[in-house]
Amino acid sequence: MIIKPIIQGVVARSAHPLGCQQAVLNQIDYVKNAPQIANGPKKVLVLGASSGFGLASRISMAFGGSQADTVGVSFERGPSDKGVGTAGWYNNVFFREEAEKQGLIAKNFVGDAFSQDMRDQVVSYIQNEFGGSVDLVVYSLATGVRPNPETGELWRSSIKTIGEPVSGPTINIEQDTLESMDVGTASADELEATVKVMGGEDWASWISMLNDAGVLDKGCRTVAYSYVGPEVTYPIYHHGTLGRAKAHLHNTADLLNEQLADIDGAAYVSVCKALVTKASVFIPAFSPYILSLFKVMKEKGTHEGCIEQMQRLFGERLYGKSNHVPVDDARLIRVDDWELEPDTQDAVKVLMAQMTADNFHQIGDYAGYKLDFLQLNGFGYDNVNYDAPVDMEKMLALHP
Ligand code: NAI
């Protein structure tokens, strides 16, 4: 079967297995050659392990100096008579294969991280087959829906503003166009639901559950990821529903930090850079900022992808040479520091002011944005022959 990219809106409906393999190999290669993590953990649980920051965290932990065994939880679909499966499914498979070649444990759980059944399976595995405990839990779930654990009813997040509506241009990846878009104001219910989905409640519930089950090792740390961004993006992000959810996540880190003191553990939020991921392309009116940012940071030589961000987070911040974790006044780890450098932001503002539907290809780094999107789904790699058929029998025989 020959697999070509199928894009609908901001969602890729196909994925190329060999390109996904290449993506995993490239990230492994990067961390092997980067400054190594000196004091990293050895047993790591990654919630949301199959793509974006979670996958990069897992690769960094396994191959970036720490040589950690990992358990990954993600929600992905394998190949079937209905389709080729999702990129994250192949990422899981190829990550495990590479980790096992190095003699590392890489266990994948594919299913709903919000369900009790998944929690029970993960705890039982850690207790019985993973040495009994973990010393790092990465929380990197990104989703639009979460079931209420008591009623099963679904909370749905809304990416909206609080207060005033805004309108702004946004990229249509399917059509390669820049279109105007209105972002409405959230109702109280929509705001509450977004905080339920993307705030810290589920993170806290995982950590309490793991702690109660006695599977957090002494000194165990946990980290979740956030975004703040510059003022130009505040109306849609920091001061909108997502920002409110992230504020909840930040508060949760402080509560968990207190809870984990009993086991000499710690909880952190790392504020990361704006990047193209499966989740971030959904944020309306945000793409002109990313296009401008990529252009400026690439010219300046400070651009990073998920893997560079995670290797820097673990190697220099969370497990740096001293035991001290550098944080800002709000106790947040900042690996968005290069993004927020004043000269970078000044240059970004200039580009954003010039950007139109006719010139965004030249003014911003649209080529880079689109390539990142394609590569998330295994397309756009020079060394993969996309005209060659993929042996789907072979793909069907793979397992996560
Ligand atoms: P992503 O979409 O690439 O990854 C999300 C992961 O969550 C995937 O592994 C997916 O399978 C998993 N997942 C989703 N629902 C699940 C469920 N019900 N059960 C099990 N697994 C599930 O997202 P990305 O962008 O890496 O986001 C991770 C975190 O990083 C989020 O908190 C996001 O807000 C944060 N972040 C993202 C930035 C960006 O620019 N992409 C910037 C800063 C922070």
From TrEMBL:
The active site is at Y237. The keyword Membrane does not apply. It catalyses: a 2,3-saturated acyl-[ACP] + NAD(+) = a (2E)-enoyl-[ACP] + NADH + H(+); a 2,3-saturated acyl-CoA + NAD(+) = a (2E)-enoyl-CoA + NADH + H(+). Residues 84-319 form the Trans-2-enoyl-CoA reductase catalytic domain. Substrate binds at Y227. Pathway: Lipid metabolism; fatty acid biosynthesis. Gene3D superfamilies: NAD(P)-binding Rossmann-like Domain. NAD(+) binds at residues 48-53, 75-76, 112-113, 141-142, 246, 275-277. Signal peptide: none annotated. Keywords: Fatty acid biosynthesis, Fatty acid metabolism, Lipid biosynthesis, Lipid metabolism, NAD, Oxidoreductase. The keyword NAD applies. Pfam families: Eno-Rase_FAD_bd (PF07055), Eno-Rase_NADH_b (PF12242), Enoyl_reductase (PF12241). Residues 327-390 form the Enoyl reductase FAD binding domain. Residues 2-80 form the Trans-2-enoyl-CoA reductase-like NAD(P)H binding domain. Its EC number is 1.3.1.9. The record marks E76 as: Plays an important role in discriminating NADH against NADPH. It is an enzyme of class 1 (oxidoreductase). It comes from the Bacteria. PANTHER family: ENOYL-[ACYL-CARRIER-PROTEIN] REDUCTASE [NADH] (PTHR37480). Monomer. Belongs to the TER reductase family. Involved in the final reduction of the elongation cycle of fatty acid synthesis (FAS II). Catalyzes the reduction of a carbon-carbon double bond in an enoyl moiety that is covalently linked to an acyl carrier protein (ACP). NCBIfam families: EnoyACPredFabV, PRK13656.1. This is Enoyl-[acyl-carrier-protein] reductase [NADH]. The lineage of its organism: Bacteria, Pseudomonadati, Pseudomonadota, Gammaproteobacteria, Vibrionales.
